[in-house]
Amino acid sequence: MNQKLLILLIFTRFFGSLIPFVTSVDIITHQACPTLPPSCSSSGQQNQKGGQVAIVNFDGDVLLNQYVRPDEPRSYWRTSREFLYLNGTSPAQMRSNVNEIIRGRIIVGFSIFHDLQGLQIDYPLSMLRDVSLFLKYKVQNGTLSLAAAVQMDLNRTIQTQKYHDALEDASATMDLFRLNHNFENETIPTKDYAKYWLSKTSATSEPTLAPCPTVPPVCLPPPEDLVAINCMIIRVGKGRKKAALPIQVTLVDYWHETILNEYILQNITDFQTNFTGITQDVYDANARNFTYVQELVINKTESKIIIGYSVSDALKILSMNHENEKLRELQRSPPIRFNPIYRERNPSLETFVTNELNMSLLDKGLPSSMLRAIALMRLYQKYRDADDLMIPPPKNPTTTNNYFL
């Protein structure tokens, strides 16, 4: 046997469970599929996942090390590494890439069936080598983990980070195989593995791939359903008695036309004009009761999709509830979500607007709620193709805060 033909495949998963593409299909070889756009008719499954695939050869040379982009709506991506998946390949394309590399070669892995099932690749048992089957790694309750086997045989530590690194796992598994290759016969599986994506399976079948799922339509909310909200607040009190009070709320539509621009009556004397742009004469002439303004906002946004920057906070401060699927949070837009620096600390709206739109939020030297609302809509329009990405995760319903009234 030419040991140079040996290949190691490790598929590390960062999301929940296996990707249920298909359950019964005709066998197709070398099928590559595009990444699927999100479906309009459903919200997707939260147990789908992406990951990382790494392949090294017998000498430890890296043949493949790529991230896999989930096919489900991106609003369900839920890991701090998701920015790595933005330019990753689709699961179906990855299956095709892997199949091209492994064809005709022996695959080595650790609990390799999980990797093959994750990639939905059918492969003959005679061409598999599962390092976890070495008798020395058997314990009373099962099998040592990869990390434990590496510690025992190689006296080194792996998997010390929050997320496993597929390349580290692949290299470690090949090191274990090379160390114990004189006992290679122990690693040949004798029991077939479940291939739920195939209608028929065979222990001697050629490597096969599941076909492309049906492509759902690309769907974006109609422009007339979109409104952007900006809420100017002031902070009053000290310590535990410190509170945020809304004093102005502005709504604009998709075409940057004003839907609503109201001032909210509060028992205050300091308007913090340098931060709110509100002067006493304008406020005294236009401020209205909180409940009245709140009802106006509710009526204007009913059945609409609300766009904002910390949009949930804006609704909370107005004591409003709104269907989560009808919110769009710009702090989840691609420039922030896929930037490791911004993910740790979101930029201010002023910084974000300057970087993305090169636009000032000042009117005659003072902050403008109107300009802020327009900027929010322009930001959404710039990244509208990532609409599903901006749907915030569900939160507990907001409750009325009496100090707003």
UniProtKB/TrEMBL annotation:
Q: Name one GO cellular component term.
A: nucleus
Give residue ranges for domain Exonuclease: 34-184
A molecular-function term among this protein's GO annotations:
nucleic acid binding
Among Gene3D superfamilies, the record links this protein to: Ribonuclease H-like superfamily/Ribonuclease H
Q: Which residues form the signal peptide?
A: 1-24
Keyword field: Hydrolase, Nuclease, rRNA processing, Signal
Biological process, per Gene Ontology: rRNA processing
- Summary of the function given for this chain in its UniProt record: Exoribonuclease involved in ribosome biosynthesis. Involved in the processing of ITS1, the internal transcribed spacer localized between the 18S and 5.8S rRNAs.
Q: What is this protein called?
A: Exonuclease domain-containing protein
Organism of derivation: Gigaspora rosea
